[in-house]
Amino acid sequence: MLKWTLAAVAAVIVVFLMVVALQPSDFKVERSATMRAPAPAAFAQVNDFQNWQAWSPWEKVDPALKRQYEGPKAGTGAVYAWQGNKDVGEGRMTIMESRPGELVRIKLEFFKPFAATNTAEFSFKPASADTTAVTWSMAGQNNFLSKAICLFVDMDRMVGGMFDQGLTQMKALVERRT
After folding, report:
1. How far apart are CA 103 and CA 105, in angstroms?
2. How far is CA 137 from CA 19, 60, 108, in A?
């Protein structure tokens, strides 16, 4: 009887490992919002990491969040590092590309609770004469552990929900200021 039980457990583990291995390696989470403001107004909120405190949802998750800024104040080369509680972890963002009113591309490095390196992008496109469509995306590679976690946690809903919240807060901010 013990042999059959161990064989069944081993079979379940093998099937689980195969299912995890077959999960997609690439992922992308993307959300958009249209704001009644010119593209430069929204762009300014993203291109300067010190502005993120006003609209980024992760800034409010840990009131004791430790922040460090390096490099230029804004644009290519600007760096924002953070250390926070278990909900925000520890990481670093570096602006890799900055095209005024069009695009901000960020190298996003997570150190805790899990190590990962992803790319975040914000694009700004005129939607009409007085509105801008802002798209926030994050893309990267899932390692084996990430693939296993994604079987139980809907990353698109979880991270996408935070993106929606951040875009809503950014929208309120830039619309109030224009």
Report:
1. 6
2. 27, 20, 12
- Gap between the Cα atoms of 45 and 177, Å rounded: 11
Six-digit token string for 113: 């609770």
Q: Does residue 30 contact residue 137 with C-beta atoms inside 8 Å?
A: yes
Q: Residue 128 is inside which H or E element, if any?
A: strand 116-128
The structure tokens listed for 102 are 């069009």
More confident residue, 103 or 141: 103
Residue 131: count of CB within 10 angstroms of its CB: 16
Cβ of 47: how many Cβ atoms within 10 Å? 23
d(CA 99, CA 112): 30
Digit-coded pLDDT (tens) for 153-174: 777 877 899 999 999 999 999 9
Find the largest Cα–Cα distance for the chain: 74
Q: How far apart are CA 27 and CA 87, in angstroms?
A: 21
Alpha-carbon distance of 108 to 143, in angstroms, equals 16
Joined together, the tokens standing for residue 40 give 């430069």
